[in-house]
Amino acid sequence: MATSLEESPETRTPLLDDVVDGAVDYKGHPSRRSTSGGWRSASFIIGVEVAERFAYYGISSNLITFLTGPLGQSTVTAAENVNIWSGSSQLLPLLGAFVADSCLGRYRTIIFASLLYILGLGLLTVSALLTSSELQILLFFFSLYLVAVAQGGHKPCVQAFGADQFDGQDPEECKAKSSFFNWWYFGSNAGILLTVSVLAYIQDNLSWGLGFGIPCVVMVLALIIFVGGTRTYRYSIKGEEESPFVRIGKVFVAALRNWRTSLSAIASEEESHGTLPDQSSEQFKFLNKALLAPDNLKKNGKVCTIAEVEEAKAVLRLFPIWATSLAYAIVFAQSTTFFTKQGATMDRTIVLGFDIPAASLQSFICLAIMMIIPIYDCIFVPMARAFTREPSGITMLQRIGTGMFFSIISMVVAALVEIKRLQTAKDYDLVDLPSATIPMSIWWLVPQYFLYGLADVFTMVGLQEFFYDQVPTELRSIGLALYLSIFGVGNFLSSFLISVIEEATSWGGHTSWFSDNLNLAHLDYFYWLLAAISAVGLLAYMYFAKSYIYNRASTI
């Protein structure tokens, strides 16, 4: 058998094609396409994501209600605390991804983060069972931020590890990888939908201890599911080359050290050797200075290779896209804060004797996403592909920009609905009765939630794929952490914006836009402001997206 394989190219080629470059199985042997990775492995990881999102949103989706209820905080203080915690949760993945990409690896980081997650949720459950005291507050916030740290290690690594199960060099698996991001987000929202539909009711009507304890149990199940797929996973292997952090940092240091070197001298010398790439060398030309040593060190020749300089430029090109996505992130922060408080003042009766929890309205975001993703992936992408010849139908940047447009429409609709709610309160003389139910159905909020979901299908999934695809292969956890950091900074900006507006509008005894009595507040003004900020952000995004040069010629 061995002899015939060596002598027959026909039998040798399938075996060679079956090996996935740069990946090994759980035993450390070369990974084979037929026995590892693909949708089989990804299904385990998507299952973990469903469970993790259920647990995370079991805390975040109704957190403002717990803070203003059992902990007795004001609406503004609670909204700021939610935004700060959410922001921290979205920024900590930068640390988790760094640990994963530089030393532990994604698989081990997921295991450690899951154990920390379970500990944090367990302590959170204990804090909810305590009576109101300093100990309860201290334990609650300690465990809350322990969950944030755990999520920081879990979130970027699980998604990157899932995408690693598809070989981007294989045409069929490359298409499957693009679909993976869609179905990953579908699974993520399935977990969120279950949370806001079930847990919000338990927390509001039964027990906060039970409402926090269930996510703890679910995270234990998530860890079991993840470990269960160990034998099927593909594990990326690190090459012997220099760390990408060192390579990229070296380029910036060398360019700074050579700041007096003439660009024209560098260009002429490199072009004479025919080594400078044509497409991207004109962008961030100052980094080309890293290609040569200063005059007094010329005997040492080049400081950095052209490939290293282009790699640094590829990373630098991400930041205008990152920065211009922040306006979208500020809008994204509102669904778990003011949207929820807004809904709490309205008629939430579904059937006689049953009121839907205000936080459960977030389920319409998830429903919209779960309705639209199959249509997008199974109908829109194949149709668009026929016209554009793009594997994913439209480019990643086009997808992101489309979602930004829908988020602006969402804010406009939210402002109009809030004007209607305030007018209804006036018509029924309920302005000075903050605890009274306004005779306006909570279903009025559904359109703004649905538009949120529509925007997410385009922008959120587009950003995930973009930041995974456009960073060096060894930094893909970092890439996804950068994507998450957009929403972390967005939450902090939202909190800062709320603080500034609260201070400005309450000055001189005036009623704040965010008064605890929402019938006197002006959330409609805030939503109009966010729509204007988003419109400016979209214009800036379009400017940078138009000139963006993709890192890989084969990328979508």
Give a quick precis of the structure.
The chain is mainly alpha-helical. Helix content is 68%, strand content 4%. The chain has a three-stranded antiparallel sheet. It has a two-stranded parallel sheet with strand order 4-7.
**Topology as H/E string?**
HHEEHHHHHHHHEHHHHHHEEEHHEHHH
**What fraction strand?**
under 5%
Radius of gyration: 26 Å
Low-confidence stretches: 1-15, 296-301
**Share of helical residues:** 55-70%
How large is the count of helical segments? 21
Average pLDDT metric: 81
Overall SS class:
mainly alpha
Number of DSSP-assigned strands: 7
Distance between the termini: 42 Å
Strand order of the largest sheet: 2-1-3
Tell me about the biggest sheet?
3 strands, antiparallel
Shape: globular
Description:
Helix 3 packs parallel to helix 9 and helix 8 crosses helix 20. The strands form 3 sheets. Strands 2-1-3 form a 3-stranded antiparallel β-sheet. It is mainly alpha-helical. 68% of the residues lie in helices and 4% in strands.
